[in-house]
Structures are given as C-alpha cells and as structure tokens.
Amino acid sequence: MHTPTMTATFVPRVTATVDLSAIRHNLVRVREYAPHSRVMAAIKADAYGHGAVPVGHTLQESGVDALAVACLEEALTLRQAGLTAPIALLEGVLSPAEAEEASGLCLQLVVHDRWQLQLLQGLPDATPLTLWFKLDSGMHRLGFPLAAAAELLAALQARPAWTLAGWITHLACADEPDNPLTQRQVDAFAQALQGMPGLRSIANSAGLIAWPQARADWVRPGLMLYGSSPFAGRTGAELGLRPAMSVESRLIAVQELEAGDAVGYGATFHCPERMRVGVVAVGYADGVHRILPTGAPVLIHGRRAPIVGRVSMDMISVDLRGLPQAAVGDSVTLWGPGLPAEEVAGWAGTLAYELFCGLTNRVHYIHRP
Ligand SMILES: Cc1ncc(COP(=O)(O)O)c(C=O)c1O
Prior knowledge:
Blueprint: E1 15-19, H1 20-33, E2 38-42, H2 44-49, H3 52-61, E3 66-69, H4 72-80, E4 87-89, H5 96-104, E5 107-111, H6 114-121, E6 129-136, E7 144-145, H7 149-157, E8 162-168, H8 181-192, E9 200-201, H9 205-210, E10 218-219, E11 245-257, E12 262-263, E13 269-270, E14 275-280, E15 297-300, E16 303-308, E17 316-319, E18 331-335, H10 341-347, H11 352-357, E19 364-368
Parallel strand pairs: 1-19, 2-3, 2-10, 3-4, 4-5, 5-6, 6-7, 6-8, 8-9
Antiparallel strand pairs: 1-11, 11-14, 11-18, 12-13, 14-17, 15-16, 15-18, 16-17
Pyridoxal-5'-phosphate is lined by residues 42, 90, 170, 204-206, 220-223, 230.
C-alpha cells in the first residue's frame, strides 16, 4: 500500500477502503473455529493489499499471538512502525546479514532447507535465534523431508542460543474438502514428530475451517482475516466473515451510443441497441484485471452493471441500460459489500488473493477504525 500524494485539489480516482473492525471480527471468527490454537496472522504482501501496518496494529491490539510475513523487508516495515508482536518470516532469511538483522529485531525464522540451516550454523554461537523448522508433508514446495526432524532437533540442541518456536508444514489442498491429501499430510506430519518436543502448526484459513484435525497448536490464517472465503462456491459471508475491503472509483463520462457502435480497444463490444455506456476511472494500472470479460459486474447505486469491451489502463466501460439515473460523478464499486471479491475474481479466472495483492500504488487507501 502506498497512498499517493494528496493535495486539497486532488479527487482520488480509485479508493480502497479498509474496514479494520471487519478484521477484528474475522479474528474473532478464527478463534471460534480454532479455540484451542494460537493465531499467527498472515499479513505478508502488505496484508494481502490491505495495508500491513494498520492491519498489524489492529491485530496486535486485538491480541493476536503472532504475525507472519514473507521476508525481512516486510518485517522491518512492521518493526519500524512500532509493532512489537512476535513476527515470523515464512521464507526465512537469504543471507547471514539478514539473519543477524532478524535476530536483532527478535524475528522468528522459518528454516525450510539445508542451505538455510548451514547459513544459520555459520553465525556466531551467541546469536540468538527463534526457529520454526518447516517439514514437507506432501505439498512439495518448501520444507525438509519428514525424516530430517530428529537431525533438525539435534542441530537446534547443539546451539544453546537457539530456541525452538515449533514445527511447521503447509497444506496443498485444504480448500478441497474431499481431497484425501490433507489427511495424509496431517498424519505424516504427526507421525514424523511423534515424541518430539515443540509446538506444531499446519493450517491456513481453509485448513482451520474445514479440517479440525489440522488446527494443532498454531493456526496461520490469512485470507479469512480479510473476509474472503478460501473455498470455491462459498462466500466469506457464508463462513461468518466480513469483507474488509471495498474498492471504488467514479463515472467520468456517460456516452449515448447507437446500435452497432463499438466500445473500447479492439472494438470487441457492439451496442445491441441505442444505449448509455458509462466510463469508469479505473483500469489495469490500478489493479483491475485486464482479463475481466464483457459481463463482469460492477456496482452502481447498489445495482449491478456489466463491464463492456476491454479493460484499458486507466478506464473501463459499463453498460448503464439498467441504471437510467446513473450520472457522471457517481461512485462505482469494483468489489466490496454487495459484490464479493471472490465473485469478481471468478470472472477474472483467479482468486480474491490476487485481486487484493494486485492493487497498485495509484490507489488511495482509507482505513476506517
Ligand atoms: C506458509 C503459509 N501459511 C499460511 C498462509 C495463509 O494462507 P491463507 O491466506 O490461505 O489463509 C500462507 C499463505 O499463502 C502461507 O504461505
């Protein structure tokens, strides 16, 4: 999130309003789903485009147990903003200098590969580190083989300045409630750690909602904190979540077009009749996916209006036939209450994660307490 310079003369073209009370509500829902687990909130990628600093403060004040980001740079931003909660680096560090800095900032490091362990072993003995060892239980993205657990524990015990935060694994298909891989991963992880000390963490949002057996000592929700559903065909509202983000732009022109007139680049849409077409000041340079087809909805005055023609860099066109009262200056919602981000993402062949993270630095942010 980068809010562009504002002067009294600017009217923001595109605004992302983030309702921090929705994030607090969604954290309560996490605790209701997983009442016996500690919560590590994933606020990487600028809190999935919601603004990591305000979201981090909100979660910290609401008593979250830890925060998680991808890398040192993201954690540094949070520490510089005064956040004192435990912060885990989900991909760990990339160099000895990063490890030293992370140690100084009291960050928790995920260690997912042998090269990373060796990097840490090369630091001075006295460097204090708090480590999550990541095991690959079947996703085959990051993680040590399950059989390495004992060796990792021995490596930790050899260094008195190292503390074990716990053992972590990640689920590949938790959003598919019938997929047997999740149970296999949970079982394999438990088996590999039988008799070993240390806390366990398995579940992301989908895992903690759909797989009670994956809740373990720590859950790691991301998407659900922002109010979106991780499951195809189920909205956040159905899961008791409140969407935190609403993205709005405005109508900057209304065209009265004739039957047969073409709209936008490539002339891909032809008016089937005499009709009004609105031009909205938002495009792919703001984060509206260019792949959104004719028919994908926006909301004007709480009613749906379909996009027509191609999304361009700074504008989209919309069919105003159902909105005779719509006029220049009217607010247009790209997603938010009444138009779930999950649904818009579906039109773009993607997920709400990518819509949120795709907002660009041209978008103005407003955080409501
Ligand atoms: C290791 C890890 N844990 C937890 C999460 C949070 O996942 P979600 O946003 O699906 O809840 C992520 C996100 O990708 C992750 O990479």
